[in-house]
Specification:
binds flavin mononucleotide; 4 strands; 188 residues; four-stranded antiparallel β-sheet; 7 helices; alpha+beta; NADH Oxidase
């Protein structure tokens, strides 16, 4: 197995982080990896927001947690009610990939960019976890008022399609769960 496939198999969602900030050079490499994802017709209709302001991160996580606590979905309410639950797991960096909603396939483009970044992070020994509540929060707000109220603006016509936290793991690196069987068919 080569290193790339090894990294793909090694990446796990990390749900406890050390306080120290992600190394700047590593962060720049991760962002570069995001920008080399494939996009429909090469449009690159994305923007990468790196949120590292502790005060803003906490305000955003409180808004996300409140969204979960008031959700119609019982599973989300249950998770958010757990003692000590922190939507961002106390990570010091949040990445948001927003995309031009008028592009051909903005969702796919932004999600692929995010996966590139999660893999790049894993290759550098940096943990990550997708945090979908940021996207749900935007959807629930229509025009995304909560973001602008926090001083978080996306480029004109952009909406957030993917968000993930990054940082150094404060937990043993998890093992992958078992893979579902019977999910591959060959037609030859
Ligand atoms: C679209 C999407 C949304 C997710 N949202 C969350 C989330 O809000 N919070 C969280 O802790 N994990 C979230 N995850 C991570 C998954 O729970 C995780 O990938 C899955 O359990 C498999 O574990 P692994 O990433 O360690 O392989 C999300 C993953 C995806 C792909």
């Amino acid at each position: 197995m080569n290193d790339t496939i090894g990294t793909i198999l090694k990446r796990r969602s990390i749900r406890a982080y050390q306080e120290r900030q992600v190394d700047e050079r590593a962060l720049q490499e991760i962002l570069l990896a995001g920008q080399f994802a494939p996009t429909a017709m090469g449009q690159q209709p994305w923007h990468f927001t790196v949120l590292q302001n502790p005060d803003l991160l906490e305000k955003l996580q409180i808004a996300c947690k409140s969204l979960f606590l008031n959700s119609d979905n019982a599973a989300l309410r249950e998770v958010a009610s757990r003692e000590g639950y922190h939507v961002f797991y106390h990570a010091s960096t949040l990445l948001i990939v927003s995309g031009d909603s008028k592009a051909i396939t903005p969702l796919q483009d932004c999600v692929l960019a995010m996966e590139n970044m999660l893999l790049a992070a894993a290759s550098l020994g940096i943990g990550s976890c997708w945090v979908h509540s940021v996207v749900l929060l935007h959807d629930s707000n229509g025009e995304g008022d909560v973001f602008s109220n926090l001083g978080l603006e996306f480029p004109e016509g952009h909406i957030p399609y993917a968000a993930a936290v990054l940082g150094y793991s404060a937990m043993p690196w998890p093992e992958a769960g078992p893979r579902k069987s019977g999910t591959v068919s060959f037609v030859r």
